[in-house]
């Protein structure tokens, strides 16, 4: 995060299989997104149709790429903290120097001349203080500092600190936010001849100035990935929402017509482009793409929606941000300063923008989707190395998985939708970065599908303009008994769009289902009458679309009497009486609420057992579990306040012994037992079936 004080598209043909296609467009939210250019600079694609086996699983490592010092602390926590607590080393790369106008001042301090080198140094020191606390060391513990040589003659400072299995590495590229001629990261992404330079921070061991062009930054980020070989990559939001700025929603630090900072978006785009280059290079060099998962986080989006973290989790974020902010009275031993003083003390908690009070995924969905195959083994699907993959359990109930089968299709956002149609054929849906290059060329997204027995093909985009098409969400799908498959995505207007695959396999066109102001993270379900329901979390209520009867079109059907939700994915499944039950958290609440849909189209609150055990935060999932005697129970999955996964129903609850990357999925295995499936920090899947005797 950084507060600055200055003020029908052309498409490439879709590549099938493993296609690391890249092309591009304007960073941020303004400019001519549809202009095309033949200027060079593209990343070579892996051969179409290739589906190379992945590298073998390695030691887990988290790599985070940030625009400014503190973006990780505000926007990527508590996820990073939980991985570090599990013993996962972390490497955080800061693209800019974060120097802004060089003022590190709070009330009570004497005014001094701006000093950008000192302010950058103070922010580096703040990060060292925060990460020392994150890994369990005293915040003033000395770090080892060195200089890393990178492609293009670039040099960067690297700071290292260990505490047993907990390890932190901070990499400072330190590109000046305001380079010569007022050049900033959006221009470096978009303009072919833009050049930026690094800033030498006070006291840094890296005393040389590095020159960056567009390709230089891509090469440097790809080289960092190749050096550290992460199994989890945290990125910022490459395609932030459009935002209306008015008296109710002042523009503040947003850029253009979007809800994010001007440096956040190109940093994310450069990161995604570097990931495609890393995958392409590794595949050509070794014959195997790297095995890693990706999680993208929203930025200033946090300010625009109801807060989604309970006070206990916010307090954990605040502890680290307060260490980063530091205090001018501290004696930290750093000549440039002891933190970013504007973020010290209680100031982040008092800031009306509330960035600290939420954590949002850009692509919210379970990292792995699983269901039993015809033999009773679990069959799971996810995204590794930007490609779709399939895992199969070695035997029913074993919890052991074979090697990932590369299904290609990429580069894909890290969230798939997976259904089996009435004929038993599997369909995978994904959001593809169909072009991603920069230099003013095409930068587009599309929804793609892999139908069993066929190759990947494009379903296009519900938006007609490329720049609007970047704002669409990840797909959600439902298969119904009449043979149809309903596909839904959140569109750029923050409403709902759909396409329907008929029983004969033909697809209808995109259709708007209207609605507005829903967050990303749709939930779809069938009720006991096999009617389709779709839910989206709005500002003041839960938005709802459904059918008057099975086979009828899906339409907007508002619900009455529901309290406003926070911003995490909700659970929906038939309850013990067969009525569809919704489970979600209200803003800042730890315990979820549950509401039953009544036959009259209304709702009534449930005092469902097991909800108290789910005090926590983050996405919720629900599934209906059969019990002895023909009864059914509603099973719920959540994260605890400490990040542990918990399963609960009306009679019991239990905690998972595993660590999950992003969200986990809840399914039933062949024996109708609840099973949680997720991705481990080493980018391998796991399956958790509560042991007999836990009451589940």
Please explain how this structure is put together.
- The chain is of the alpha+beta class.
- It has a domain at 62-357: LmbE-like (Rossmann fold), CATH 3.40.50.
- It has ten helices and 36 strands.
- The chain has a seven-stranded mixed β-sheet, sandwiched between helices.
- Helix 3 crosses helix 8 (311-325) and helix 5 (214-228) packs across helix 6 (264-286).
- The longest helix is centred in the middle third of the chain and has 23 residues, at 264-286.
- The protein is globular and about 75 Å long.
- InterPro entries: GlcNAc_PI_deacetylase-related, LmbE-like_dom_sf, TAT_signal.
- Keywords: Zinc.
- Pfam families: PIG-L.
And the CATH topology of one domain? Rossmann fold
Tell me how many strands there are.
Answer: 36
Major pleated sheet: 7 strands, mixed
- CATH superfamily (homologous) name of one domain: LmbE-like
| DSSP helical segment count | 10
Topology of this protein?
Elements: E1 62-66, H1 71-76, H2 79-85, E2 90-96, H3 116-134, E3 144-150, E4 154-163, E5 166-175, H4 185-190, E6 196-197, E7 211-212, H5 214-228, E8 232-236, H6 264-286, E9 293-297, H7 301-304, H8 311-325, H9 347-350, E10 368-372, E11 378-384, E12 387-392, E13 405-408, E14 417-420, E15 426-432, E16 446-451, E17 457-460, H10 466-469, E18 476-479, E19 485-490, E20 496-501, E21 511-512, E22 523-526, E23 532-537, E24 542-546, E25 555-556, E26 571-574, E27 580-584, E28 593-597, E29 603-606, E30 616-626, E31 632-640, E32 645-648, E33 653-655, E34 665-668, E35 674-679, E36 685-688
Parallel strand pairs: 1-2, 1-8, 2-5, 8-9
Antiparallel strand pairs: 3-4, 4-5, 6-7, 10-11, 11-12, 12-13, 14-15, 15-16, 16-17, 18-19, 19-20, 20-21, 22-23, 23-24, 24-25, 26-27, 27-28, 28-29, 30-31, 31-32, 32-33, 34-35, 35-36
